[in-house]
Amino acid sequence: MEPGSTQSLGSAGNVPGVGQVSTRKPLIEAANVEKSYGATRVLRGLSFQVRAGEIHALLGGNGAGKSTLIRIITGLTSRDAGEINVASSKAGRTSPIIAVVHQELALLPELSVAENIGIVHARSGSSQISRRRMREIALRALQLIDPAIGEEIIDLPARKLSLHEGQIVEIARALSTGAEVLLLDEPTANLTAGETAKLFWVLKRLVHEEGIGIVFVSHRMREIRALCDVCTILRDGVTIANATSLALLSDAEIVQQMGQPAQGPAMHRNPQKRRRQGAPVELLGPGDVRIAISSGTILGLAGAPAGPTGLIAPLVGAGLGAGWRLSREGFADRFSSPAAAARAGIGFVSGDRATKGILSQLPIVDNVLAARRVRERRRIVAAAERQECRDLVSALKLKAASIWDLPLRCPAATSKSFSWHAGLGCRSGWWCWKSRRGASTSAPSMTFTA
Q1: Do 418 and 407 form a contact (C-beta atoms < 8 A)?
Q2: Please, what's the largest Cα pairwise distance for the chain?
């Protein structure tokens, strides 16, 4: 079966040995790891190990401690207690090379794609690597995932890449290092089904041929079953299952051990009872497309990553799109800026949390209420709003010691949530939600709600 086909996602294809539990020695072994942010305990005696020759699913709900553990393993965050031991399986090497793809992109915006991939191959900060060599390394790594995209983006500065293209570059950079351990934190969140299938084929081949260990974080059960051999399940910073064969667990058992509520029956709404106020908004697009959106309606749109992005920009005043606009009495044909859209009652939650969804140098209260202040042309947070923010943080069970904490000082799951919590604080009449990374969806989507 062709590795790039969507049908290959559900099996190991022609790669022998994939799907078996590895008996090799651990490359990484963590024991009794603890981590707190202020009074909030994020990891509470967690244990975890990954072996050479296996693809290991790291599972848990939002706030379970997955991203924090990855940050500790890679040295981005210090642990408060516990041990982490690493050992290489390569002759003459004591520690394994560990490469990581984080949820949030870590590209240098003014460097080209070739430079972003090639820079990790410099032996030291003062050493140099030729541009020609960088291009060779980058093209070879990009072609592992998508042969067509390499020549298109190889010389572009990273700041001009879409979120989707940036994700491919991040993965290619990790693959180019020849690492013994790959830590992949939701790497497929912005990939198409075809690109995901190609990536899985590459990962399985690397495990079989090179004997590397891979840690894969995802909320998508279909991907976990298609790719992984074993799983570790975390809940509230504690290890519930450690390196357990996925063949021994059903989907329901995994969800139960994660502490997630069982999926209830689908709710059906009676369109006749739906509250409708005022004239509907019409979404007008190319080819005389007209979609009426009444108050109380949720409209879901799905497609390749560039599709929703190109549509959403003109609707929220962030740029020109392919002929899309909103039509309603009192609305401008096009908004000149995001501020103008916000003042017209349009809210937006970006899928790109790192650069568009979080004000990293401002506290939680400013993140939650920023859009409302833009809409109402205010700079000061009223006392009632401070209490409203506290109530919102408490109701949504965010792990933060104070509303004055910076997002970057909070646990990973909490900082990721601020973009859509900020939306809840805006009180807009119409919303554009770009699907959150980490949501269990099979394709990028966008929702308009009233």
Answers
A1: yes
A2: 73
Q: Which of 417, 367, 413, 411 is nearest to 39 (CA)?
A: 411
Tokens representing residue 325 in the block: 């606009």
Q: Are residues 293 and 355 in the same domain?
A: yes
- List beta partners, residue 290: 284
**CATH code (residue 47):** 3.40.50.300
Angle at 44 between CA 366 and CA 36, to 5 degrees: 35
| Inter-residue contact 237 to 207 (CB < 8 Å) | no
Question: Residue 230 pairs with which residues in a beta bridge?
Answer: 56, 245
Residue 317 has phi, psi (to 5 degrees) of 75, 25
Judgement on whether residues 74 and 113 belong to the same structural domain of the protein: yes
Whether 1 maps to a domain, the answer reads: no
Question: In this predicted model, what pLDDT tens digit does every residue of 190-202 receive, in sequence order?
Answer: 777 888 888 898 8
Domain end among 258, 289, 312: 258
Q: What is the pLDDT of residues 403-437, one digit of tens each?
A: 887 776 666 656 556 555 555 555 555 666 555 45
Question: What distance in Å separates the CA atoms of residue 249 and residue 55, rounded to the nearest whole number?
Answer: 16
In contact, 172 and 144? CB cutoff 8 Å: yes
Does residue 321 sit in the same domain as residue 422? yes
Q: What does the angle CA 233 – CA 26 – CA 121 come to, to the nearest 5 degrees?
A: 100
User: What is the DSSP code string of 394-448?
Assistant: HHTT---S-TTS-GGGS-HHHHHHHHHHHHHTT--SEEEEEPPTTSS-SS-EEEE
Query: Residue 314 pLDDT > 70, yes or no?
Result: yes
8 Å CB contact between 159 and 134: no
Split at pLDDT 50, 70, 90, the class of 49 is: very high
| Domain count across the chain | 2
Q: How far apart are CA 289 and CA 282, in angstroms?
A: 10
Of 417, 437, 356, 446, whose CA–CA distance to 191 is shortest? 437
- Cα separation values, 210 from 15, 52, 132, 312, Å: 12, 9, 27, 42
* Band of residue 249 on the pLDDT scale cut at 50, 70, 90: very high
Judge whether 317 and 341 are in contact, CB under 8 Å. yes
Q: 383-395 vs 364-376: helix axis angle to the nearest 10? A: 130
Give the end of a domain, one of 223, 258, 293: 258
Task: For Cα atoms 346, 437, 214, give the angle at the middle one, nearest 5 degrees.
Answer: 170
Whether residue 274 is predicted with pLDDT greater than 60 in this model: the reply is no
Asked whether residue 430 falls in the same domain as residue 352, the answer is yes
Structural domain for 344, as ranges: 279-449
Within this chain, do residues 353 and 243 fall inside the same structural domain, yes or no?
no
